[in-house]
Design goal:
Radius of gyration: 23 Å
Strand order of the largest sheet: 3-2-1-4-16
Number of helices: 18
Helix content: 25-40%
Bound molecules: iron/sulfur cluster
Distance between the termini: 35 Å
Length: about 475
């Protein structure tokens, strides 16, 4: 039997329907600190969970993974307790396993396809991924794969988020000389500025960025492409270019009072907290006001992150205000459950229509309408419909608007020949990421609009293959 093939196929395996829970900080403790909520599997729990895998001959889980990880192979190594072989197998397709194991929506991807889902509970693939990445880091010796012979070709990557990191790592392994240009002072893109410490510790992001550096990738921070240097200049001294600048332009609702003090975009609020470490002020240099009653508008993961951050900053009450019902919440179930356990109050079927302030220009109240659900709209979800005359007010002194983001417009606006769609996303071939500019590829949120970390990584992987084939 190949060492990569799952064991135990000779004898039918006894089904274990029980999915092993991952220990977490209790809600009453974690709502008062910024430490990571989930504590990760122990070795014993990891082996027990991995041992549930049936080692399917035609594993459906792999088809659900945007980066095509050989899931049964890495799980079979883990089930035998050979964690070194397991992480080696995992990293053949995923250079950010500690990140994706924490923040990917596995429940709608690999785990949703797992055969065990219909027989009790799907395998906890994401938790095992996370365990293996953390186990390797604890050993103090992260294995660096051998790079192909240098090709003499140079590739510029704009943006150090999940798409940029993946394309850079893949191309470096193939022997190309890769430089990432990052606009902020720290690498990691949305992983660094967008996702809070309690969900994705910055030390974990730094560890995985460091891994890509050790693959030979150079990272230049504080370099805003489109301002500091142009795309044309980069193409002048590189053979190919990848744009992965993400979706960081926040949306507002354009309702009265959004310019009052105390009303933020989630993007600004979370950047102040995550990248600038506002929660450590005055040890850090960025202050963040402590609000007493905060309303977060929106229902996605960014809304949950903002609400839970405001709670940890000492707010007495935090509302999530969402115009549809619980069933339509776009956030991961795990995140909305965590938020509820911590005491976040969900105001469903509620639409803000204006904010009112005091004489000094600080927000003091929000006016909302009640909604009811009508027929499904183009997204397939039931359309929220206003209930006429149902206006009511909620006293607040902080509002965080987390209703979505558009792609960063800087590069398309100053680069001739780079076509954009009506939504402001870059026009790119879905299979290769090739844009309308010569020698230029793109992937991640700049092409799809705001999506998930693993989809951005998948786009980076496809573009790396296309760029490599072009350079070869
Ligand atoms: S579908 Fe589930 S049980 Fe089958 S190989 Fe994948 S993880 Fe294992």
């Amino acid at each position: 039997m190949s060492p990569d093939k799952p064991q135990g196929q000779e004898k039918p395996k006894k089904l274990n329907l029980h999915r092993h829970e991952m220990p977490k900080q209790p809600p009453e403790v974690r709502r008062g600190n910024f430490n990571e909520v989930a504590l990760g599997y122990t070795s014993d729990l990891a082996i027990a969970e991995a041992s549930r895998c049936m080692g399917c001959k035609q594993p459906k889980c792999v088809a659900g993974c945007p980066v095509e990880i050989d899931i049964p192979a890495f799980i079979s190594h883990a089930a035998r307790g050979d964690f070194a072989a397991a992480i080696r197998k995992l990293k053949e397709k995923n250079c950010l396993p500690a990140v994706s194991g924490r923040v990917c929506p596995q429940e709608t991807q690999c785990e949703s396809k797992c055969i065990l889902k219909n027989k009790g509970a799907e395998l906890a693939i994401g938790r095992l991924e996370r365990f293996l990445a953390d186990w390797e880091a604890e050993q103090g010796e992260v294995e660096i794969p051998r790079r192909a012979k240098p090709t003499g070709k140079k590739v510029a990557v704009v943006g150090s988020g999940p798409a940029g990191i993946t394309v850079a790592g893949d191309l470096a392994l193939l022997g190309h000389e890769v430089t990432i240009f990052e606009a902020l002072h720290k690498a990691g893109g949305v992983l660094t500025y967008g996702i809070p410490e309690f969900r994705l510790p910055k030390s974990v992001v730094a560890r995985e960025v460091d891994y890509v550096r050790r693959l030979g990738v150079e990272i230049q921070t504080d370099c805003v492409i489109g301002k500091t240097r142009s795309v044309d200049e980069l193409l002048g001294d590189h053979d190919a270019l990848f744009i992965g600048t993400g979706a960081g332009l926040p949306w507002f609702m354009n309702i009265p009072g959004e310019n009052l003090n105390g009303v933020y975009s989630a993007n600004e609020y979370l950047t102040r907290m995550n990248l600038m470490e506002g929660f450590l002020f005055p040890r850090s240099s960025t202050p963040v006001k402590k609000h007493r009653v905060v309303a977060v508008v929106g229902g996605g993961n960014v809304a949950m992150d903002s609400a839970r951050t405001a709670l940890r900053m000492g707010a007495d009450k935090v509302y999530v205000v969402y115009r549809r019902s619980h069933e339509e919440l776009p956030a991961r179930l795990e995140e909305s459950e965590n938020a509820e356990e911590e005491g976040i109050v969900f105001k469903m079927l509620t639409l803000p229509v204006r904010y009112m302030g005091d004489e000094k220009g600080w927000v003091r109240e929000m006016e909302c309408l009640r909604m009811e659900l009508g027929e499904p709209d183009s997204s397939g979800r039931k359309r929220p419909v206003e209930v006429k005359g149902s206006n009511f007010t909620i006293p607040v002194d902080g509002v965080i608007c987390a209703i979505g983001n558009s792609p960063n417009p800087l590069i398309p606006s100053v680069t001739p020949g780079l076509d954009v769609t009506e939504r402001g996303t870059l026009v790119a071939d879905p299979e290769t990421g090739k844009t309308t500019r010569d020698r230029t590829w793109a992937g991640g949120d700049i092409v799809t609009g705001a999506a998930t970390v693993i989809l951005a990584m998948g786009a980076g992987r496809k573009a790396a293959k296309a760029i490599h084939s072009f350079l070869s």
